[in-house]
């Protein structure tokens, strides 16, 4: 499946960067954020940083994926749960799966000092909303968090640039997005897809938006045409 050509692939990466720099934070509210990092000083530093950037965000810091799962289970949902990848016991990718098992509507992202493409792809396949490098500067980090909390997805542009083959790009779709993509290619509406896959319409809309962005398709029709042309 080859939906992203060499000519438009890097424009997508550029678009992601520009989008991060131009998002109006008032249009992407994020009130509750949960951070899980086994290095408590890092977690505390992020809480402090976000408080300085936007005092309206209520940020909770815990030290493990297990603690994050327990906190989510307490009831009041978070706009975003951010898991460190390298945590003892349960890493961020496994933690994403555990949270989604009991709380499928909870948005989860991963932050790490590592950016290997295979790890990023595994995280997206597990249902993560994105992968944030710890090297990101303050404002882009905040914008990326807001993007994920609003239902978008963030993948570092340099990782996108390394995914040269069509198979690699298809792997950027989560398992849920792949199921929706197949239905989308048949020309089904969001409502029809939601009924067929037993998903909430809002969830389907989020998946469709991410699918079109990753595929570089301007419309549902163009996505369907490209899908069938490359089968």
Note the main attributes of this structure.
single chain, 231 residues, alpha/beta, Rossmann fold, Arc Repressor Mutant, subunit A, 2 domains, 5-stranded parallel beta sheet, 12 helices, 55% helix, globular
Architecture overview:
This protein is an alpha/beta fold. The protein folds into two domains: 6-162, 3-Layer(aba) Sandwich (Rossmann fold); 173-229, Winged helix-like DNA-binding domain superfamily/Winged helix DNA-binding domain (Arc Repressor Mutant, subunit A, Orthogonal Bundle). It is 55% helix and 10% strand. It contains twelve helices and five strands. It has a five-stranded parallel beta sheet with strand order 2-1-3-4-5, with helices on both faces. Helix 2 links the parallel strand 1 and strand 2. Helix 9 (175-184) crosses helix 11 (201-215) and helix 10 packs across helix 11 (201-215). The longest helix is centred in the first third of the chain and has 17 residues, at 6-22. The protein is globular, with a radius of gyration of 17 Å. It starts with 5 loop residues before the first helix and ends with a helix. Mean pLDDT is 81; it is low at 1-26.
